[in-house]
């Protein structure tokens, strides 16, 4: 009886619980950090043994897809430093994340071989500097006056490159995000400040503007870059001597641990991007330039917006490509078909993973229909195509129904009277050239925002008007001379 009473008192309800214990991925390296926090589209995929985690690549692959967070010394130019690194490591290609003037020191990201594909994205990333400014006279307001002037010069500013720079001296707008005054000595006319700014900002010009604003004049005394994109002074910064010593250790003692410490995997630069995890079977298709579709998606980050730049990665944490998201996080969780992302810049080598496209049920059916003559050789419908296929099959490469047809150029009447010369080869060449030009233009303007497009159109219009004005002037001058 007592046992029955005891059983009544205990609550035997089955409580909901996680089937599998959650894995703590907060200490996992690079792109796999906090992997368990990513939203799951599906957990089912066939792992392929090809590829490996970035830190376990063999030395040759590790170097050829590596980056160096280099502390640039004063006096040599950025190009000289990069050329020296290329010669030390005996590699094919090297590139850097944005030029530093010869006298400037600090963070210079050197990309090696495959990693040079990320140079463009790193050159456009934000930068941080610590600057020593020399004023030409004592300030009556002292440190407070200097701090106020520094705070005034934040936000969007007009800048013209200094005379010393080897670029076209055109007026441009650059943004200063934040600045802090570290130290100020009014007697010695010196100040030290930190500034976080957009890529392409001239700190030398900023110092001149500060001098003008304070009314005493000023120039830049010293400059050091403390952050460039994802890399800063605290993240394993190395000197040229470290690189040389690491290569010497590998050559003479076969100890590669120093080289692995000096060089970091290219994935280090991509940790700030939103992540999209791709199934192993879809990796090689993306490497060949295919768009990532919903069936190839495994996991994705929260907060992805349409047309945002994302990184496509494998389940082992390797970067496949930089892409432009075609769906937001909300759409990714609800849609059952469609394009997830378009490839902007492919990073991974082709055929590292096996080819697995064309093996799905729809692809096999399409292949069979082409063999039976129910589709033409390009997979397009013909007279023999079943009605069911036309209604159910969705071709993502077909032009949109709402899109306007291409404008047809008017043929002058004089051209119509000339005798036609049949030359199929010439026609083929012309069509190939025109298609190539169209593709080139499309690629050049891919991923641009609505504001950038409007600005480009406006500049084009201005150019045309200028040209027309010039031609009109010429006609007037010729009339006057007559």
From TrEMBL:
Residues 445-455 have a biased composition (Basic and acidic residues). InterPro entries: Dyskerin-like, PsdUridine_synth_cat_dom_sf, PsdUridine_synth_N, PUA, PUA-like_sf, PUA_sf, tRNA_PsdUridine_synth_B_fam, TruB_C. Residues 424-482 are annotated as: Disordered. The keyword Magnesium does not apply. Residues 274-348 form the PUA domain. It comes from the Eukaryota. One of its GO terms (cellular component) is box H/ACA snoRNP complex. The keyword Lipid biosynthesis does not apply. PROSITE patterns: PUA. GO terms for molecular function: pseudouridine synthase activity; RNA binding. Keywords: Isomerase. Residues 456-472 have a biased composition (Basic residues). GO terms for biological process: box H/ACA sno(s)RNA 3'-end processing; mRNA pseudouridine synthesis; rRNA pseudouridine synthesis; snRNA pseudouridine synthesis. It catalyses: uridine in snRNA = pseudouridine in snRNA; a uridine in mRNA = a pseudouridine in mRNA; uridine in 5S rRNA = pseudouridine in 5S rRNA. Residues 24-82 form the Dyskerin-like domain. SMART domains: DKCLD, PUA. Catalytic subunit of H/ACA small nucleolar ribonucleoprotein (H/ACA snoRNP) complex, which catalyzes pseudouridylation of rRNA. This involves the isomerization of uridine such that the ribose is subsequently attached to C5, instead of the normal N1. Pseudouridine ('psi') residues may serve to stabilize the conformation of rRNAs and play a central role in ribosomal RNA processing. The H/ACA snoRNP complex also mediates pseudouridylation of other types of RNAs. Catalyzes pseudouridylation at position 93 in U2 snRNA. PANTHER family: CENTROMERE/MICROTUBULE BINDING PROTEIN CBF5, H_ACA RIBONUCLEOPROTEIN COMPLEX SUBUNIT DKC1. Belongs to the pseudouridine synthase TruB family. This is H/ACA ribonucleoprotein complex subunit CBF5.
């Amino acid at each position: 009886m007592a046992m029955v009473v005891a059983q009544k008192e205990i609550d035997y309800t089955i409580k909901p619980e996680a089937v599998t214990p959650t894995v703590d991925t907060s200490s996992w390296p690079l792109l796999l950090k906090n992997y368990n926090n990513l939203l799951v589209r599906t957990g089912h995929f066939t792992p392929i043994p090809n590829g490996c985690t970035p830190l376990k690549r063999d030395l040759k692959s590790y170097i050829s897809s590596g980056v160096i967070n280099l502390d640039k010394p004063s006096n040599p130019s950025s190009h000289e430093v990069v050329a020296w690194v290329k010669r030390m490591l005996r590699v094919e290609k090297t590139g850097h994340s944005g030029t530093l003037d010869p006298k400037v020191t600090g963070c210079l990201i050197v990309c090696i071989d495959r990693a040079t594909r990320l140079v463009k994205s790193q050159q456009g990333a934000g930068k941080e500097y610590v600057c020593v400014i020399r004023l030409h006279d004592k300030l009556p307001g002292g440190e407070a006056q200097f701090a106020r002037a520094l705070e005034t010069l934040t936000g969007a500013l007009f800048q013209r490159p200094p005379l010393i720079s080897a670029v076209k001296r055109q007026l441009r707008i650059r943004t200063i995000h934040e600045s802090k005054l570290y130290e100020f000595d009014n007697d010695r006319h010196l100040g030290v400040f930190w500034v976080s700014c957009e890529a392409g900002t001239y700190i030398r010009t900023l110092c001149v503007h500060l001098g003008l604003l304070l009314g005493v004049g000023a120039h830049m005394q010293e400059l050091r870059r403390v952050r460039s994109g994802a890399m800063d002074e605290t993240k394993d910064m190395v000197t040229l001597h470290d690189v040389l010593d690491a290569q010497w250790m590998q050559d003479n003692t076969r100890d590669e641990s120093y080289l692995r410490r000096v060089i970091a995997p290219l994935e280090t630069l991509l940790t700030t991007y939103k992540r999209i995890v791709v199934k192993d079977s879809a990796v090689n298709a993306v490497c060949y330039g295919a768009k990532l579709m919903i069936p190839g998606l495994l996991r994705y980050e929260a907060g992805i917006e349409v047309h945002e730049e994302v990184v496509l990665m494998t389940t082992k944490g390797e970067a496949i490509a930089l892409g432009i998201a075609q769906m937001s996080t909300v759409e990714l969780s609800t849609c059952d078909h469609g394009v997830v992302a378009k490839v902007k810049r492919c990073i991974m080598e082709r055929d590292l993973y096996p080819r697995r496209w064309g093996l799905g049920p729809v692809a096999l059916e399409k292949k069979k229909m082409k063999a039976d003559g129910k589709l033409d050789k390009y997979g397009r419908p013909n007279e023999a195509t079943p009605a069911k296929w036309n209604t159910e099959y969705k071709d993502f490469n077909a032009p949109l129904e709402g899109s306007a047809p291409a404008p047809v150029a008017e043929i002058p009447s004089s051209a119509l009277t000339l005798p036609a010369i049949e030359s199929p080869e010439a026609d083929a060449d012309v069509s190939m050239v025109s298609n190539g030009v169209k593709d080139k233009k499309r690629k050049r303007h891919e991923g641009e925002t609505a504001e950038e497009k409007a600005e480009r159109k406006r500049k084009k219009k201005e150019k045309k008007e200028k040209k027309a004005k010039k031609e009109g002037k010429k006609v007037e001058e010729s009339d006057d001379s007559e």
